[in-house]
Specification:
The chain is α/β, with parallel strands linked by helices and about 240 residues long. About 40% of the residues lie in helices and about 15% in strands. The protein is built from 8 helices and 8 strands. The strands form 2 sheets. It has a 4-stranded parallel beta sheet with strand order 2-1-3-4, with helices on both faces. Strands 6-5-7-8 form a 4-stranded parallel beta sheet, sandwiched between helices. The longest helix has 22 residues. The model has no long low-confidence stretch (mean pLDDT about 90).
């Protein structure tokens, strides 16, 4: 199936401010919701109209629990509604995110500092962002690549100050999430991006929907068990 034959529901987590930052997705054929009750109500409404549904977890790689949360929500559907509903794989992985950020960084002048920004998602998700930014710096041409956490520490204002303290004169904020921050100081910083162009976002969404329905048609796999198992496999170990 392709969009038009199926209702596509994009579900967001902390990378999209609970789905709110997805409202402007350049794909009018997508319903954007938060996980939990809003997702359940949206899918139930589509199924009540007799529509097949594909749910796409809109993580860019830093919210491995999002797909499992969606799967647990979809398990609450009736057997009849579940029969017409599939859960796609995540929109993106951390490897995708590194590649997308490197491509965005390549469009920024080399004598500019990069500040990779995303909403804080907890200690492990935040640590992942520092690793991702390090890889962007390692394989790029910018001397300074720092991280700023929206609602966390360091925040974008502090991130810009750090770049300036390192001797940089101009800072470009690159979003590693669907949320984009306010520019702390327009005199020395500016917004970069978007991370993905409108055609690229639509193309990835179409690919995830196609993959999900092909797997369902071929194997009878609705994606729920797969998402729950993947989340278990990504669980972070805790040192005590």
């Amino acid at each position: 199936m392709v969009p038009g034959d199926v209702d596509v529901v994009a579900v967001g987590g902390h990378e999209s401010d609970g789905g709110r930052a997805l409202r402007g997705l350049p794909a009018p054929w997508v319903d954007c919701v938060s996980s939990g009750r809003e997702l359940l109500m949206c899918v139930s409404a589509s199924r009540a109209r007799g529509r097949a549904v594909c749910v796409v977890p809109m993580t860019l790689g830093r919210d491995p629990d999002l797909a499992a949360d969606a799967a647990r929500t979809l398990l609450a559907l009736s057997a009849e509604d579940r029969a017409g509903t599939v859960l796609a794989g995540p929109f993106g992985t951390q490897d995708h995110l590194v590649g997308w950020l490197r491509a965005a960084a390549a469009r920024v002048a080399g004598d500019t500092a990069l500040l990779v920004t995303a909403p804080s998602g907890g200690p492990f998700a935040d640590a992942d962002l520092f690793r991702i930014a390090r890889l962007v710096r390692q394989y790029g041409r910018h001397r300074t690549v720092e991280v700023a956490l929206i609602g966390g520490d360091p925040d974008p204002a502090e991130g810009v100050r750090r770049c300036l303290a390192l001797g940089e004169r101009r800072v470009v904020l690159l979003p590693a999430a669907w949320v984009t921050p306010e520019i702390p100081d327009p005199d020395c910083s500016e917004r970069g991006g978007p991370l993905l162009s409108a055609p690229a976002v639509a193309g990835v969404l179409r690919a995830r929907v196609h993959e999900a329905w092909e797997r369902y048609d071929r194997l009878g796999d609705d994606g729920l068990s797969r998402a729950l198992a993947a989340a278990h496999g990504h669980a972070h170990s805790h040192a005590h």
